[in-house]
Amino acid sequence: MTLKWTLLALLSLASTAAAKPIVVGSKLDPEAQILGQMIVLTLKNAGLEVTDKTNLGDTGVNRKAILAGEIDVYPEYTGNAVYLFPAAKITAKQAGSPGVIYGFARQLDVKNGISWLKPANVNNTWVIAVPQAFASAQKFSSVADLAKYLNGGGKFKIAEVIYNIQHASAVDLKPTGRT
């Protein structure tokens, strides 16, 4: 799935920029920190006063901060609209289409007074990395091969950074029929 970064900004950002510093937030991961710093530098180079709150926290922390008016802008994945708007019941197919998910995010956040700016032209496709010896022994060449292995009773441990907690946790996965 291709996820694109977009910037979330309060609609009032332009009108309040001259009145108070623009507060820039970002998530904890290196990509978000770099993008946050790029926003800070771009705004400063444009002569605007900026308060740097990059490295603020995970998705939930930044989301709460922008909704509360504590930050004015932060970089976000368009694909995170699936998690930000669970009641919208966005399907996997819809979430896999960058244009569709961006349209949903823009539309769903209007009522919150938040505008999703045009997405950056970047790609953050996720993969599952496994040791080469394990992949060779099991003849893995795709995620479908891994799913077949798990559905056949194979054991597997995965460490995943979950957005609503700030550490990795290892879990012994057992076949559940989930994808």
UniProtKB/TrEMBL annotation:
UniProt domain ABC-type glycine betaine transport system substrate-binding: residue ranges: 20-157
Native source organism of the sequence: Deinococcus oregonensis
Keywords associated with the record: Signal
Protein known as: Glycine betaine ABC transporter substrate-binding protein
Domain of life: Bacteria
UniProt cross-references to Pfam families, sorted A to Z: OpuAC
InterPro entries from the UniProt entry: ABC_Gly_betaine_transp_sub-bd
Residues forming coiled coils: none
Signal peptide extent: 1-19
